[in-house]
Amino acid sequence: MSNNLLQSADLGEYFLTKEGLDSLVLSLKMAKQIVLKDSEKIPADSQLASLPYDHVQLLKQLWGLALGRQADFTWNNFLAQLESLLFESLAHMVTLRVAYQPTLEQLSELTSAVRLQYSPSAVLDLVYEPRLIGGCIMEVNGERLDCSLKTKLEKASQQIAN
What is the pTM of this model? Predict the structure, then answer.
């Protein structure tokens, strides 16, 4: 069995954006401060109370997946693998400049498309720029793809002027 029991697919669509990832990284740092008694495999709910509820639920879900894959998995191993997975996702950051805040459904579709094209662990860094009017600008690996309505209108205006 692989040493890497957690995969980006395990996180599903929990964190689609850099903001969500950053929040989860902070919770992970807090979780690493929890000291377990020798008999404990996972912290008690009271020990996790300082973390956001949805993060606690995600940690429990991922912990269950890890235990299902290897019964002697420890909390510290779990946190180390989760941290590695989160930092791998940070390495696959895609900046998406948008004119408006997308719905969760739109965000999910955008993230799925980006993950298919670039990396299964890609995370979106959403930047809101109302001046784009519509569409978006995507920046990844030093490349920029401008599909904004503002740029299309500027190009059309230049063609008319010429």
Answer: 0.69
Residues 28 and 80 in one domain: yes
162 burial (CB, 10 Å; 0-12 / 13-18 / 19+) is: exposed
DSSP string, 45-83: GGGGTTS-HHHHHHHHHHHHHHHHH-TT--HHHHHHHHH
| Closest-CA residue to 90 (of 25, 41, 26, 147) | 25
39: in domain:
yes
Q: Which residues pair with 50 in a beta bridge?
A: none
Give residue for tokens 């990832």. Answer: 21
DSSP bridge pairs for 147? none
**Residue range 65-85, pLDDT digits in tens:** 888 888 777 888 888 888 888
Q: Are residues 68 and 116 in the same domain?
A: no
Highest mean pLDDT range out of 64-78, 85-99, 130-144?
130-144
Percent of the chain with pLDDT strictly greater than 70? 91
Structural domain for 155, as ranges: 92-161
Distance CA 98, CA 136 (A): 5
If asked whether residues 109 and 73 sit together in one domain, one would say: no
Out of 89, 114, 144, pick the residue that ends a domain.
89
The answer to whether residue 146 scores a pLDDT higher than 90 is: yes
| CA separation for the pair 133, 98 (Å, rounded) | 9
